[in-house]
Amino acid sequence: MPTLVKPSRGPGQAPAEEAGPHPLAGTQMIGADAIVQVLADEGVDTIFGYSGGAILPTYDAIFRYNEPRPTDQQIRLIVPATEQGAGFMAAGYARSSGCVGVFLVTSGPGATNSVTPVRDCQADSVPVVLICGQVPRAAMGTDAFQEAPVFNIMASCAKHVFLLTDEHKVEPTMRSAFELARSGRPGPVVVDIPRDVQLAQSVFQGGGRLPLMGYRDRLDQLNRAAISPAEAEAFFRLLGAAKRPLIYAGGGVINSDAAPELRKFAKRFQIPVVTTLMGIGAVDTTGDLSLRMLGMHGTAFANYAVEDCDFLFAVGSRFDDRVAGKVKEFAPGASIAHLDVDASEIGKVKHVDWAHVSDAKRGLQQLLKAGEGLGFKKDYADWHRHVQELRARHALNYNRDSERIQAEYVLERLNQITRGNAIVSTGVGQHQMWAAQYMDFVRPRTFLTSGSMGTMGFGLPAAIGAQLANPGALVIDVDGDGSIRMNLGELETLTTYDIPVKVLLLNNLGDGMVRQWQDLFYANRYSGSDKTLHKKDFVRAVEADGFGFAKRVVAQAQVEPTLAEFVNFPGPAFLEVMVDPTAHVYPMVGPGMGYKDMITGKWIPSRDQGPSTTEEPGEYF
User: CA 554 to CA 482: how far, in whole Å?
Assistant: First the structure.
């Protein structure tokens, strides 16, 4: 077996063009060794995965790669409780670092258990590479033990899928998988590799990728795309005609590392900013120009600003149903400009008056330069006064007089400790929305959540991946009792590897968001959502998993001091807070409704145009 080499490059960085030949070029090696060497060349420092017969050659290659090296030069292997956990760990690693996350599973159930995180990454444009073992080539199609049609299953869920049946293409396929995952609109790439291909000998070339000519042509066009003087003039003509401009920023700003450009653009032209759930952190939520999140559970003042604006600049956002709601009524009086890396998103949902296809970073840089060249300047003081009035009149609020602990109160107190500097992951449900509403995020890549798919169970494994990608950071999983059950086994992963994630469980004894809908739209018929009969003692469970800090809070007076202990504990910590099971997340724009129909609840003043809360939902959750 050849001795594989470790490149001198930071974790997860794309490989630079080497001045000379690869030190292993011309070496005979098996496919599994080629896979691991490409991972090393790509700067991978952590793999998440669960082993099995069809992928054992590659697991063995990782062991042999690491054996002669000191710990700090090894490729770290994290073994989760489930393959779904591995996928979300890779996603958390990628979302928080911007590097490609990697997970490694066996054939059959190992691959099928990975479908959900792959689809989740596709929906939220997250760059990961999944490597699946497959039965030997001769056994494919025979319903062999632990065989699954990975290519067919994953083709509709991933950005791209490779079925690697030629041992001579292992190396270029693996390099191409990373290229595809991180370039253009990022996404998950699946490589399905039969066991005998992993064991077959071939000559390592030390470079090279698959042709992918059409894809690279599109990338080249994208990279060469420039906003022409005429396009720039048209954009600033629209902006100049506006009295009430607003920026609507999405996850594309985070993906293209364009937060500095967005903040500079907003400050230079003094335009307030609303963000999607995926765009949280694109602007500092404590800044004067930030109106926080818009949409179904966005702040009332953000949604009213969208209603009132006369120019909306969508950057790296896609007018999805949770934001646009009743599309015809979204930003009803505004001309719309759209900057996005994916041409298919332009005009897909909402007609726009100006558009440019480019990643957010390049597009904003070019618009900034063009605006300065044109000497564009306009006073939006009246609009700023109006926005501040909206912020003051329709501020977030909740039942502060209740004897029960309110989740919003817990997150406000936590926010006083973190001051926007923690990396926060969430499960999916009410706690997810409350975290987005009540916690601050100073930097991008610090709010990690399953947006488009809304996958319960995301928070805990994503926090593990984020902590391993950011070893010095404070990482907190804000979770719910329903959501955390989905991947509860990953609590043991924290103690197995002594990963200092803080798990805050807001326990409302049920599926709170489903129950909220049942309260509002289904006459309090709690079909399948009431968990009060469940007997899970989470504190005893995590104590059994070896947690040194495991506490439950049942009184409001305990919240603040216990949170401080929890955050400052040096290792993995678990805190369960029993919160009001009857509380609702407000504001809320119901399905099929427009922002003018927003339900603000008892504690947030509205414009008094809301409908009855007994209206039947127009669509799905």
Answer: 18
Strand pairing partners for 424? Answer: 447, 476
Split at pLDDT 50, 70, 90, the class of 9 is: very low
- Facing residues of 46 across strands? 76
Sheet with 311-315, edge to edge strand ranges: 290-293, 273-275, 245-249, 311-315, 335-340, 354-357
Report the 10 Å Cβ neighbour count for 172. Answer: 19
Structure tokens at 35: 């896979």
Q: How far apart are CA 79 and CA 330, in angstroms?
A: 45
List pLDDT tens digits, range 366-380.
Answer: 999 999 999 999 999
Distance CA 310, CA 391 (A): 18
Q: What is the pLDDT of residue 159?
A: 98
Give the type of residue at 292.
R
Q: What is the DSSP letter of 225?
A: -
Overall average pLDDT of the 284-303 stretch: 97
Please list, in sequence order, all residues whose beta carbon lies within 8 angstroms of the beta carbon of residue 61, skipping any fewer than 6 positions away.
Answer: 30, 32, 33, 35, 36
The answer to whether 77 and 47 have CB atoms below 8 angstroms apart is yes
Q: Is 187 exposed, middle or buried (0-12, 13-18, 19+ CB in 10 A)?
A: buried
Residue 351: how many other CB atoms lie within 10 Å: 9
Residue for token pair 């997860």:
12
CA angle 45, 341, 252 (to 5 degrees): 60
* Structure-derived torsion over alpha carbons of residues 400, 297, 437, 517, reported in degrees to the nearest 10: 50
Using the structure block, give the residue that is written with the tokens 């840089």: 365
| Residues 6+ positions from 175 with CB-CB distance below 8 Å | 38, 41, 42, 207, 208, 209
246-255, 265-274, 524-533, 581-590: least confidently modelled range: 524-533
Q: Do the Cβ atoms of 33 and 1 come closer than 8 Å?
A: yes
Q: How far apart, in whole angstroms, are the C-alpha atoms of residue 424 and residue 480? A: 14
CA distances to 303, 318, 388, 399, 431 from 276, in Å: 11, 10, 20, 25, 17
pLDDT at residue 522 tops 70 = yes
Rounded to 5 degrees, what angle do the CA atoms 520, 526, 530 make?
Answer: 125
Cis peptide before 581 (omega within 30 of 0): no
For the record, the structure tokens of 400 come out as 């502060």
Q: Which helix (H) or strand (E) holds 322?
A: helix 321-324
What is the 3 state secondary structure string of 600-620? CCCCCCCCCCCCCCCCCCCCC
Whether the predicted pLDDT of 3 surpasses 70 = no
Q: Which stretch of DSSP H or E encloses residue 575? A: strand 573-578
Q: What would the mean pLDDT of 225-240 be, rounded to a whole number?
A: 97
Give the burial class of 118: count Cβ atoms within 10 A of its Cβ; 0-12 exposed, 13-18 middle, 19 or more buried: buried
Q: Given CA atoms 29, 33, 39, 41 in this order, what sign does their dihedral have?
A: negative
